[in-house]
Amino acid sequence: MHSEIEFENAIKTMLEHIGEDVNREGLIDTPKRVRKAYEFMCSGYKQDPKEIIQKALFTSTNDEMVVVKDIEFYSFCEHHMLPIIGKAHVAYIPNGKVIGLSKIPRVVDVFARRLQIQEQLTEQICDALNEHLKPKGVAVMIDARHMCMEMRGVEKICSTTVTSALRGLFKSNKGTKDEFLSIVAQSLHK
């Protein structure tokens, strides 16, 4: 309770700093709404990707690529605390186990719902799946817009940043990597 009040007071201070009247009708409940919004949008700090993955592993003889494309996510740039809006494309090659498909977007959200840089977000998703699923390979590609570039600074509207992380066969086998890239290429910059 004490930390909630501290957070709300910090929002009031910020509003006053930018020249707002914190007592005007539209802003009276804003500090509480902002606190609740941030609790949700930064909920990834309280989640463990290992738990999500290990609760949804199933034995399978499948050893072909599994791809989940166009996973929408929202994150915050750790430098300006402005939104990062994008899509993640995740692939893995099973090694005796498959993961429930709904768990892959949940793993993306665990890391997206933290203050981030896109490069680190991409690596964290890839490494969590690689470590806890133990597949023959994992690939993650993220295509995202950064509001810190669009709303301030260089103001480059609609520019996107693409990052990738590859492990196992996706890194060592050009054919596997090329197959993944051809599958996700049609989703980039949609």
UniProtKB/TrEMBL annotation:
It catalyses: GTP + H2O = 7,8-dihydroneopterin 3'-triphosphate + formate + H(+). Residues 8-184 form the GTP cyclohydrolase I domain. GO terms for cellular component: cytoplasm. InterPro entries: GTP-CH-I_C/QueF, GTP-CH-I_N, GTP_CycHdrlase_I, GTP_CycHdrlase_I_CS, GTP_CycHdrlase_I_dom. SUPFAM superfamilies: Tetrahydrobiopterin biosynthesis enzymes-like. Keywords: GTP-binding, Hydrolase, Metal-binding, Nucleotide-binding, One-carbon metabolism, Zinc. GO terms for biological process: one-carbon metabolic process; tetrahydrobiopterin biosynthetic process; tetrahydrofolate biosynthetic process. Its EC number is 3.5.4.16. One of its GO terms (molecular function) is GTP binding. Zn(2+) binds at C77, H80, C148. It is an enzyme of class 3 (hydrolase). Pathway: Cofactor biosynthesis; 7,8-dihydroneopterin triphosphate biosynthesis; 7,8-dihydroneopterin triphosphate from GTP: step 1/1. Belongs to the GTP cyclohydrolase I family. HAMAP family: FolE. Homopolymer. This is GTP cyclohydrolase 1.
